[in-house]
Specification:
Blueprint: E1 2-8, E2 11-12, E3 21-28, E4 33-41, H1 50-56, E5 61-63, H2 69-77, E6 81-83, H3 91-100
Parallel strand pairs: 1-5, 5-6
Antiparallel strand pairs: 1-2, 1-3, 3-4
Length: 112
């Protein structure tokens, strides 16, 4: 399993489409731990491009602060589970909470 987290200043970016980079976390769901991390620079923002781009990099889950409905549908169509409304936190803490089933999601920070 690979979890993608959009970043700004090393923490979750509230709007994934305008993040600096993505943390791609390799995780072991059985052991509930992160086994590796790579940060990749985000490509220039183009509507509809990020779901395919992240799918090509093996992402199976994306944890975001905010994401529009169209983007959520595109991620789902690429087989990527979408979690929105996550708190501003480090990728490792978000992944640990997700794996433990305790990730608190709030309101979607995106209104489009």
């Amino acid at each position: 399993m690979k979890i993608a987290v959009p970043l700004a200043a090393g923490r979750l970016a509230m709007h994934f489409g305008h993040c600096e980079c993505f943390a791609l976390l390799d995780v072991d769901p059985a052991g509930r731990n992160v086994t590796g991390r790579s940060d990749v620079d985000a490509p220039p923002h183009q509507p509809g491009m990020l779901p395919a781009w992240l799918a090509e990099r093996g992402a199976t889950v994306i944890i975001a602060g905010g994401m529009g409905q169209r983007a959520q549908a595109l991620f789902t169509s690429h087989g990527i589970e979408v979690l929105v409304g996550a708190p501003v936190e480090t990728p490792e803490n978000l992944a640990a909470a997700y794996l433990a089933g305790t990730l608190q999601s709030g309101e979607n920070a995106c209104d489009h």
